[in-house]
Amino acid sequence: MQGTTELREKLATACRLLYMEGLMDHAGLAGARIPETGNLLLNPREMRGTPGRHPGIMTAGDFVVVDPEGAKIEGENNPPSETPIFTGVFRARADAMAVFHLHLPTATLFSIVGTPLRPVGVMGSPFGRAVPVCPDATLIQRREQGEAVARALGQNLAVLLQGHGAVIVGGSIEEAFVAAILLEDNAVFQYRERDRNAQSHEGRRAASSAKAGLAAESDLEDVALLPYEGPVHGNSYGIVEPPSYSSCRGPAGPRFERCNRMAPLNSSSNQSWPRSFPNRSSAI
Ligand SMILES: [Zn+2]
Questions:
Q1: Which pLDDT tens digit goes with each residue over 103-123?
Q2: Does the residue 266 lie in any domain?
Q3: Is residue 48 in a domain?
Q4: CA 106 / ligand 1 centre spacing (Å)
Q5: Ligand 1 centre and the CA of 275: distance in Å?
Q6: 84 C-alpha to center of ligand 1: Å?
Q7: Which residues hold their Cβ within 5 A of ligand 1, which is an ion?
Q8: How many Å lie between the centroid of ligand 1 and the Cα of residue 164?
Q9: Does the predicted TM-score (pTM) go above 0.90?
Q10: What whole-number distance in Å separates Cα of residue 160 and Cα of residue 164?
């Protein structure tokens, strides 16, 4: 079997953790280059005799091996339809040992509304001045599409696919995993910063109307924050709450928690960090 047990288990663990983090849905994909052969280990198109796959229960034996052109070499399952993403990016980036294709819920929004996704804090600093966007809004199923994704990615760590998701690369599975977390977290921060600014702007307008233009600027600054509901702590980016977790039960039965980064900023919504949640930096 191609791909060491360690590599396969690490990729499977990444899938499960990305699912728990709310970053990999059923259509999300993860791939790793097999150093010994140059072939690719990919999520399967189907899993254990059923159509589709579930990243929350991915195991080392579920992956399929394809050659650098995408032809299946090994595995009970078929390669995913978006294999050209991986063949295109791995061909273009000799430094990449892992590639994730994730339909990140918040980062993807920026490709839809046309707002550049920029580093708004240290979380976003690895991504350059703005995350590039590949304008192809369809499924990436042909070789030339995969090559276009690779061109849009360039030497960056990530590229957004218009209205679709993101492609993230790493020199290892761990690097790509951390980059995926940072990309989505930065997007949440930027989203909430804009949301907070918009609400502050509304507050200023309301205060201006109420005081008929007589308020001093310092008064308005105080009033401006009032309409913002929920506790405000954290830093100047408006990052005010840790993600919430909702209980869910995977098909295999074990109970685990799944992250929801975009839960409403509402102090009554039972948000908390579960103590059992794995430390991201040492989880895989
Ligand atoms: Zn996709």
A1: 999 999 999 998 999 999 888
A2: no
A3: yes
A4: 15
A5: 32
A6: 11
A7: 165
A8: 6
A9: no
A10: 8
